[in-house]
Design a protein that fits this description.
mainly alpha, Proton glutamate symport protein, disordered C terminus, 78% helix
């Protein structure tokens, strides 16, 4: 086996082990039935430990990243445009998945007892958003029941530390150090994920039977065709908006290697140098690609938004609370977009994203292991769209900054010439 093949196998190693243990748990549950409940405490202990880590993990990771930005004015315009494009494309992804699930539906064979839903049909979408993004007392903001409110507070805190400059350097370093500690704690806990999820799924399948596995199969049959359509149709649309027919032709010509790498490694970070190289060949100036691609690797997750919308619709059906009104769909879209942009950079195997969905909709915590497993199954498709979408986003940002004929100019050469001229003026 070649080194490249070994790397690809290694990238799937943890997921394959996790899936294998979950299948073992499912078999135990099917064989033992309700007697498999003796394994429930093992799974619940692991889950509770994960819940405890989520709030400090989100706070220190997001606040630390923002606080470390020293010169916010220099790239402020570029970042605002970049984040704006990320939000718009994520919204398109979410709307597309609503259409897919509306046409093909989701599996309805598993029905669970619902808790108190966060969605009230009598509430306007404005009221739902206010309740999701804000709380009226500080103790509530450090609860996993209000993840989005925690993110709003965390971003505000990080921006304030960054704005203090030198005075905030000690706090910024403290945030960075603590984030490393919690990253490590989550990494250690996730090593126990196969055992924890095996025990949890043994109890779940013992209670609900093999229908739970059927739900996963249905999810795969819906998500991956939808992801393929999004990849070829929507990324082509973004490339067309950026540079017309030339953009579409050359985007798909340059994106093949990054796309195969994304599928092989399931890592947006692994595709970074390839995405940057593709941007160079497309004529995207490095001052744009060097910001958009790395930022996109952590907060441009259209593939994750597709998956999140599917999971929201699936859970609403599973708990007998389907989305009905326009405000229900709008609220779900806001949650999915916010999660794909704000929470995706937080490590932990998607737990932060899934917990945000659970807390926003008031689903029982029993559904978290179900969603974590679904996230693992969707991950390769998510990575493909997430990473390749960064190159398309770089083209869009360049279009809005440099005009519709940007690809006809040699912007990288012009940028290099300007750098040399400035350096000469300084030396002179």
């Amino acid at each position: 086996m070649s080194n490249q093949a070994k790397k690809k196998v290694s990238a799937y190693h943890d997921s394959l082990i996790l899936i294998a243990f979950v299948l073992v748990g499912a078999v135990i549950g099917i064989v033992l039935g309700e007697k498999a409940s003796f394994l429930y405490p093992i799974g619940q202990i692991w889950l509770n430990m994960l819940f405890v880590l989520l709030v400090p993990l989100i706070f220190f990771s997001i606040a630390g990243s923002i606080a470390a930005v020293a010169d916010t004015k220099r790239i402020g315009k570029l970042l605002l445009l970049t984040i704006g494009i990320f939000i718009v494309t994520a919204a398109f992804a979410g709307i597309f998945m609503f259409l897919v699930t509306g046409i093909f539906g989701v599996d309805t064979s598993v029905q669970m007892e619902a808790g108190e839903s966060a969605i009230n049909a009598a509430d306007s979408v404005g009221t739902q958003i206010v309740n999701a993004f804000t709380v009226n007392d500080f103790p509530l903001v450090i609860s996993r029941g209000h993840i989005l409110a925690l993110i709003v507070f965390t971003v505000f805190f990080g921006v304030t530390v960054s704005a203090l400059g030198e005075e905030g350097r000690a706090v910024s370093q403290w945030l960075a150090d603590l984030s490393k500690v919690f990253y490590k704690m989550v990494a250690l806990l996730m090593k126990l994920a196969p055992i924890g999820l095996m025990a949890y799924f043994a109890n779940l399948t013992g209670t609900y039977g093999a229908e739970l596995l059927k739900s996963y199969g249905r999810g795969l049959l819906i998500y991956y065709p939808a992801a393929i359509v999004y990849f070829f149709a929507f990324l082509a649309l973004y490339a067309f908006i950026a540079a017309g027919p030339w953009g579409v032709r050359n985007f798909f010509r340059q994106i093949l290697t990054p796309a195969l790498t994304a599928l092989g490694t399931r890592s947006s970070a692994a595709t970074l140098p390839l995405q940057l190289d593709a941007c160079d060949k497309l004529g995207v100036p490095r001052e744009v690609s060097s910001v958009v691609v790395p930022v996109g690797a952590t907060c441009h997750m259209d593939g994750a938004c597709l998956a999140t919308i599917y999971e929201i619709v699936f859970c609403c059906v599973m708990f007998g609370r389907p989305l009905r009104s326009l405000s229900d769909f709008a609220f779900a879209l806001v949650i999915a977009v916010a999660g794909s942009v704000a929470v995706s950079s937080v490590p932990g195997g998607g737990a932060a994203m899934e917990t945000m969905v659970i807390s926003s909709f008031g689903f029982p915590t029993i559904v978290l292991p179900v969603l974590l497993m679904m996230t693992q199954l969707f991950d390769a498709g998510c990575t493909l769209i997430n990473s390749c979408g960064d190159t398309a986003a770089s083209m869009l940002v360049t279009r809005f900054l440099y005009g519709k004929d940007w690809y006809k100019k040699d912007l990288n050469r012009a940028e290099a010439a300007n750098t040399v001229t400035k350096a000469g003026a300084i030396n002179g």
